[in-house]
Design brief:
2,3-Dihydroxybiphenyl 1,2-Dioxygenase, domain 1, nine-stranded mixed beta sheet, eight-stranded mixed beta sheet, Glyas_Fos-R_dOase_dom, lyase activity, methylmalonyl-CoA epimerase activity, Catechol 2,3-dioxygenase-like lactoylglutathione lyase family enzyme, oxidoreductase
Length: about 300
C-alpha cells in the first residue's frame, strides 16, 4: 500500500444565489440531513457517514464551487503537507490551524493548479451516524467528485505530485484523446476524477447508496420529484459502479451510485477505455445514450471561484 498524507474525501461546498431552493433540494429531494445552519450557510450530512457533513451550501451572488475537502490521518500530516506545498510554490490561502466548522479539527487551505480551493483536515470529530436500512433511498455517504479542467494531463500531474493521488483508469476517444482520468487516494477506485472541458468547473458530485435496490428506489424518487435526469440508470465499466445523474436547481450535476470498485493497489494496472464503445459508458445498456447534449450538461457553467478563496 502506498504512503499518503490524504486519506479520503470529506465534503464538497457550493455557493449559489437561490439558497433556499438549493437547500430544499439537498435536504429534501436528494435525501441529506441538515445538521447545522448559520446566516446563509447550510451543512448537510449523509445519514450513514461519520463525516460531520458532506455538502455545504452558501448563499452568494455568484454560483461557484467553494471548496473540496479531503481528510488526513493527523495534524502532523496536515502540517507536513502544508510545508511540502509551500516549498513547491503552491499558494496557501489559509495556514494550518483550528477549523470553526461543525466537528472542528485542524486544517489547511490552498489553490490547486486550476485555482480551486482545496482543504485538508484532521482531528474532525466523528458524527454519530447510523446503518441505512433496506429500501431506504437516501445516501450512505459521499462517494466521489469529478472536476472539469482544460488540461487534464497537467491537473492529473499536479494531484499526483502534490497530494499523492494515483491513476486508476482513463477514458479516451479515438479522435480526441484522453477525456477523463480516474484518481484515487485510497483503495476506492476513485475519490476524484478529472474530465476534459473548455473551462474549469464542477463536473459532478456522487453519493453512495446502500445497494442496488436503494439506488433504484432513489433514482425513481428523484425522477418523480420533477428534477431533471440527464443520464442513467446504468453501470459504468471504469469503477464498475452504477449511475443516475440529475441536475440540482442551479445546474450542478449530482449522481446516485453504488458498488464502486475497491482495488488491490499493489496489483492494479490502469486501463485505457475507449468510451465510444457502448459497454464502456454503460455495461447494462439501460441508460440513454451518451451524446453531446448529455456531455454539455456536465460542462456546467465556468467556475466564478477560480483563484478566489471563499469567504468562509
Amino acid at each position: 500500500m502506498p504512503d499518503r498524507l490524504i486519506t479520503h474525501l470529506r465534503h464538497v461546498d457550493l455557493a449559489v444565489p437561490d439558497f433556499a431552493r438549493q437547500r430544499e433540494f439537498y435536504a429534501g429531494v436528494w435525501g441529506l440531513t441538515e445538521v447545522a445552519t448559520d446566516t446563509g450557510l447550510s451543512f448537510l450530512a449523509a445519514e450513514g457517514s461519520p463525516e460531520q457533513y458532506v455538502v455545504r451550501l452558501r448563499k452568494a451572488e455568484d454560483k461557484r464551487l467553494d471548496l473540496i475537502a479531503f481528510g488526513a490521518e493527523s495534524t502532523a500530516d496536515v502540517d507536513a503537507l502544508a510545508e511540502r506545498l509551500a516549498a513547491a510554490g503552491v499558494r496557501i490561502v489559509r495556514e494550518p490551524g483550528p477549523l470553526d466548522t461543525p466537528g472542528g479539527g485542524y486544517g489547511v487551505r490552498f489553490f490547486d493548479v486550476d485555482g480551486r480551493t482545496v482543504e485538508v483536515s484532521a482531528d474532525v470529530a466523528v458524527r454519530r451516524h447510523r446503518r441505512i436500512e433496506e429500501r431506504e433511498s437516501i445516501p450512505v455517504r459521499l462517494s466521489h467528485v469529478v472536476l472539469n479542467a482544460t488540461d487534464i494531463e497537467a491537473t492529473r500531474r499536479w494531484y499526483e505530485e502534490h497530494l499523492d493521488f494515483a491513476l486508476s483508469d482513463t477514458l479516451m476517444h479515438p479522435a480526441m484523446g484522453h477525456m477523463m482520468h480516474f484518481m484515487r487516494c485510497n483503495p476506492q477506485h476513485h475519490s476524484m476524477a478529472i474530465a476534459r472541458c473548455p473551462h474549469t468547473s464542477l463536473h459532478h458530485i456522487s453519493f453512495e447508496m446502500r445497494g442496488i435496490d436503494e439506488y433504484m428506489y432513489a433514482t425513481g424518487r428523484v425522477i418523480r420529484s420533477g428534477a431533471r435526469k440527464i443520464w442513467g440508470p446504468g453501470r459504468h465499466l471504469a469503477g464498475n459502479n452504477t449511475f443516475s445523474y440529475f441536475l440540482d436547481p442551479h445546474g450542478n450535476t449530482v449522481e446516485y451510485t453504488t458498488e464502486l470498485e475497491r482495488l488491490d493497489e499493489d496489483a492494479w494496472h490502469p486501463h485505457v477505455y475507449d468510451f465510444t464503445r457502448p459497454e464502456v459508458s454503460d455495461q447494462w445498456g439501460t441508460a440513454n445514450p451518451m451524446n453531446e447534449l448529455v456531455a454539455r450538461e456536465s460542462f456546467n457553467d465556468p467556475d466564478r471561484g477560480v483563484f478566489v478563496a471563499p469567504p468562509v
